[in-house]
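Technical note accompanying the year-one report. For the benefit of new consortium partners, we illustrate the data format agreed upon in the data management plan: each record pairs a sequence with a structure-token string. No post-processing was applied to the example shown here.
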Amino acid sequence: MVHRAVLHVDMDAFFVSVELRNRPQLVGKPVIVGFPEGRSVVLSASYDCRARGIHSAMPMSQAIPLMPEATIIEPSHHLYAQASGEIMAYFRTLTPLVEQVSVDEAFLDVTGSMRMLGGPMEIGRTIREHIRKNMGLPASVGIAKNKFIAKLASTYAKPDGMAVIAPDRTEEFLEDLPVSKMWGVGKRTGQQLHALGIETVGQLSREPEERLIVRMGEHGRSLHRLANGIDERPVEVTRDEKSISAEHTFAVDVSEVRVLEDELLRLSHRVAKRLRDHGKSAGGVGLKIKYRDFTGLTRSRALGAATDSSATVGEAGMLLLKKLLPLTQPVRLIGIRAERLEDSAAGLQLSLDPKDEKVRDAERVADLIGQKFPQSLVTPARFLRPRE
């Protein structure tokens, strides 16, 4: 029987690793990426921080006391997007079957590439060496006969390693793994399995499928197949993003319109920069607001012409915000979203106002400066005013 060769490549502490390329003096020291504010959360943490219990999505107010000596670095999303784009582009030189799962991980089906590139282990080693040598980043690789096992293998390989699960060793590999490691096993499903006396994947594989279906429906059937190493899902070529967004949760609920406008413009510049990095333009803009009581709303508007201009995205966001004034209650979160994306290569409609074109040219110059001098800060003067 001929098995597929599926790789799951997962970058290690991706945001931290990208930041350390420009801060070599911090290599080997505890680092947390996130905003040092009460309601902000950890976006990434070095492995020594993780050993103290710090993890992604943990509130910074909880993380900092666990590792007070850690260096806090505010995120540079444009750098992460640029690194991610380079990594995914490299994967596609190895195989057309690349499924990007997130900014820092992807599945690769290399079954059809082995004649030219060697066996899956050789391809895995090549990937890790290329990313380390050419991008200065560590990556873990899991190799198996399907996506489910490859994903588990890459987790087992972390940090900065490679794990290969041969088809005839699949059952042995799964036998003692906790069911909590499986796709689709969250808190509620875990409780259901625990009630059945099932703690490991091996136990789940031997449970009568009919019993699982009675208790959990089709989800029980799916879990039983995975527990037996059966995963027929293909590696699906990633579709283009349908939107690009950014949002910010304030440390303290905000009632001042000026503060909301400033943050909305910052987010607009971040989103538009990502549009330009990805060669996309937006035909619409959306606004997201979450109030003090956690209720929220979204509003959208179509643009007259697709754009990748920070100024245009920001203006559209400001118009949406003004329609929500006066505020019914303080705001805890604000976000902006670029929608109806299309390739900029198809052509952007030029403005009849020369001022607009000068602004777009200035934004592109700022992009080039940021690429050449990653630690520089090129930003609208409004953002540099002293905070009150």
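Partners are asked to follow this layout when depositing records. The first strand starts at residue 6 and ends at 11.
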